Structure prediction request, 140 residues.
Amino acid sequence: MKRLLALCIILLVFVTACGKKEVKKVTPDSAITTEAFAVVEHLREAYVKNDRAAIEKYTTRAGYLSMANARKSFDSAELTFTPALVEIYGDTVHIYVSWNGTWKKGGKSIEDRGLADFILREKPLKLDEVLRTNPFSKPD
Prediction:
């Protein structure tokens, strides 16, 4: 009987101690980082699908023109992004992304990889410029 009572007390203490879920508030930097990741992922998907309207939605005017001028035609593309670092400078966000890509054009396969620095501005965030190796400029 004493064992059963002790077991019940231990279970009661355990359940009440672990029963409360404390919800942590999202910091402003965390919200900006999450938004930046989403924008870059939407751009990747739009580029692979060749969806110019979606690309325009997630870019500033200068960003769209820069992307359109750098872009080369392809039959199909596979592109993976791995975010590496986010830096926030006031209203400007730099998101560094390691990328791997495979483009197919005219029966030829082109593979490349690199590190891009996507500069996002405005509210909501939009791509304004791509520095370093631009994943949206292949194939050759």
